[in-house]
Design a protein that fits this description.
The complex is a heterodimer of chains A (about 325) and B (about 325). Chain A has 16 helices and no strands. Chain A is mostly helical and about 325 residues long. Chain B has 14 helices and two strands. The chains are: A mainly alpha (about 325), B mainly alpha (about 325).
Chain lengths: ~325, ~325
Amino acid sequence: MLSAPPPPERGASTADRSVPGTGATSSAVVAAGGGDAGLAAVLPATGPQRAEVTVVGDKTRAWRIRIAYFFLIAYALLMFVPFAWTVVTSFKTLEDSVRLTIIPQPFTTAAWDYAFNNLQPNIVQMFVNSFAIAIAVTITNVVLGSFAGYAFARLRFPGRGILFLIVLATLMIPDQLRMIPIYSIFNAIGFNKGVLQMVSIVIVLAISASSVFLLRQYFLTIPKDLEEAARIDGAGHWTTFTRVMLPLASPAIAAVTILQFQGTWNGFFWPFVLIRDQSLWTLPLGLTQFRLVGGFGTNWPPLMATVVLATVPILILYLFFQRYFVEGIAASGVKG
Amino acid sequence: MTAASARRPTKAASTRVGERQEALAGYALIAVPMLLFLVLNIGSILYAAFISLWKWNIRTGPVTFLGLNNYVNALTDSIFQAAVTNTVYYTVIWVPLTMALGLFLAVIVNQKIRGRTFFRGAFYFPAIASSAAISTIWIFIMNPFGLFNQVRGILGINPLFALIGFGPNQDWLGDYHTAMNGIIILNAWTTSGTFMIFYLAALQAIPHEVYEAAAIDGAGAWDTFRRITFPLLRPGHFFVATVGVIGGLQLFDQAVQIGNVDGAPANSLMTLVLYLYNAAFKRLQYGSAAAAGVLLFLIIFAATLIQRRLFEGREPTTA
C-alpha cells in the first residue's frame, strides 16, 4: 500500500486538517483524500481485512455469494469482450470482420501489415510522438509536483494557504475555457510551427493540480522527526528535500508517474487543438483522424490493429503497476 | 545589559533568519509550478473573459468592442441551445447511471469474497484505454452490422427491439435518436470502474463498529445498506457526483470521435465544448467562443455549488 513510510503515527492524523476546507473544489478533493490522508486511503485488497457481517444464516449467505459472483462474472465479461473482439477482428479480413466468427476465417495478419506500412504518418512515428510528449509531461509533473507538494506540505511561508487554494481551484477550470487564450498565446510567440507544437502541449500539461495535491497529501503523512534529524545534522532545506523526503515519497511519485503517463498518452483534447502538422500526430489523434478523414473509416481490421497498438503500452503498465493506477486514482480523484 | 537579555534578541534573530530561509525555500520550490498555474489557468480565464467582450482576431487581437453581444448571440443561437440541452441531458443521465453502477460494484467488491482483487482490476480495465481507442471500438461494435446487432439477433431478442421501434440493423451511433444514448452507455461502461474505486475509498472510511451495531440489532443486508451504508457514504456521493458533473459538462472527445466536429448526426452530438471549438476554429469567432467558454465555466461552477448544497446538511451520526 502507498502509506509506506514508517512509522506513521505522527503526521497522518494532522493531514486532512490542513487542507483548506472552503470552496467547492477543495472540499470535493478533501472528500477523496479525506479521512485517510490522501494516498493513505486504503483499498480493500491491501487494507486491514474486515470481518464479514454475518447476520443471516449460512444458507442465505451462500446464495448471496452465488448471486454476487453471477454479477461479478457477467460484468467482468462485459469489460473484456469489446477488447477481445477488437483483437480478434485485427486478424480478420474485411469481409469476415462484420461476421460473428470468433476464430478469424481466414486468419490473416494483413491488417497488421497495413497498420505498420500504410498509415500516414507511420505508426512508429506516432508512437515516438506520443511517447515523447508523455515522457516529458510525466517528468515535469513529478519534478514540479514534488517541489510544490513538499513546499505546501512542509515549509511555512506567507500566502501558503491561499496559493494552495488557487492550485486546487484550477481543477474546476474547464480546459476548453483555457483553449482560446492558450491557443492565441502560443500562436503569438510562434509555437504553432514544427516541433514547438509538441512543446506547447508539454507546457500546457507541465503541472497539474492533481499531481501537486497527491504529493502534498503524501508528504503530510511522513513523520516530521526524519526531517528534524536531518536539520540537526546540518542539512539545508534543499538537501533535506532531495536526500530525505523525496526517497520516502517514492510510492506517491510512482502514482503520479503512472497517472500522468497514462493521461498524456491517452490525451486527445490538447493535441487535437494544438497540433496542426500531420507528422506530429499522436496515436489518439491519428486514430481519430484516420477514421474521420483518412479514408479508412470502415476498414475495420487495420483500425482495430491500430487500436490494439495504441492500447498495449498502457495495458502493460496496468498489468505490472495496477495498484498505482487504482490507488492513485482513489487518492487524487480528478480524472473523471 | 545582562547576559540573558543579550542572548534573547540573538535567538529571536536566528529564528527569524531560519523562518526567512524556510519561506525563501518555499517560494523557490513553488516558483515555477505557481507561475504555470497563474499564467495558464488563472491568467487564461481572465484573458478569456476579456476576449469574450470583443470581436477578436487571432493574430492582431481586439477588433471591435462588443460588450456582452457575444453572450447574447451565443444564448440566442439555436445551435448553442441544442448544445446546452444535449450536454445537460448527457450529464443528467450519465452521472446517476454511472454512480449507481460504481456503487453497486464497490459494495460487491468490498465483500470478503475470493478473487475480488481480480474483479476490481477487471472493472477498472476499460478506463485505462484512450477515448480514441474506446470510441473506435464502440463505433465498430455499434455499427449496423456490428457485434451488438448480431448478438441480439442470435439471442432472439429482436422482437423486443422492434417493439420500441428499432430494426435489426439499427445504426445506433449514426441515428440522431440514439447517438447520444450510445455515448452515455459507452462512458458508463468505461467510467463505472473509476467510480467504483472512489466509492471503495469512501466505504473504507465507514467505521466497522457501525456494522457490528447493525448486526447486533439484527438488521438484514438490504436494511444495512439502505439505512447505514448509503447515508454514511454522503461525502463519497458528493465527491463522485461533483467529479462526474464537472467531467460530464465537458463532454468532447467521444462526441468528436463519433460525430466529427459538426456534432453529427443532426447536431445530436453537439456539446457545449464542441460548440466552443467550432466557434473558434470553424467560424473563427474567437470572441463568441470565449463567451461560450465563460458560460460553460459558470454552468460548471453553479452545478458544483448546487451539489454542495444538496449533499450538505446534517452529517448522519454514526451512533
